[in-house]
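Q: What structure does this chain adopt?
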Amino acid sequence: MKSIITNPWFERLVLAIIVANAITLGLETYPAIMLAYGSTLMKLDLVFVGFFVIELSLRLSVLGRTFWQDGWNWFDATVVGLTVLPFLGVSGIGNVSAFRAVRLLRVLSIIPSFRRVLAGIGRALSGSFAVMAVLAVILYVYAVVSVKLFRDVSPEKFADLGTSFFTYFQIMTLDAWSDIVLPIMAVYWWAGMFFVSFIVTAVFILLSILIGVASNAMNENDTEKK
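A:
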């Protein structure tokens, strides 16, 4: 069994199964296709689930306790565990059949370049904690101040702290932020400068620093791999 699971062709087989499963899950989103081939797609889904469970069981039986010493094995076990929830009769957490799509995340642990990217992201997150903390403080301050200043003018956007937080997340994405600001500027002419100061500080400066930290972390990770 060890010679099987360590063979390069076996990894390619797992990748091929993941791709095939991705195609069938995509086909399931079309009602016309489900009406014509639904039973076939459901049977294929059972085959795919069975394959992933057997593959994980093989690796677990071969590696034993050392299986859990690798973070990627934990990742694979979690993904496979979530995908079998619909077959265990689990309820109370929404449409558990949606968890079947989670198994496609297995491709992240199969392809080495994807693993390097995720490792770089992990390193970037650990190295950018201070920047994210500063961003969180600034976001909190602006959210609280905006509730005090603009609640009467725009209650649907700044009714309370939670609503204000969500509004500022939208502003951070620069998605239709002018639709939020212009009605307030009609009442307070200086409101534009207030919101622009947030965009410059949070989006242009702090988020740029986060992107730079992430880029450096990925470059360092690639250098160590070489």
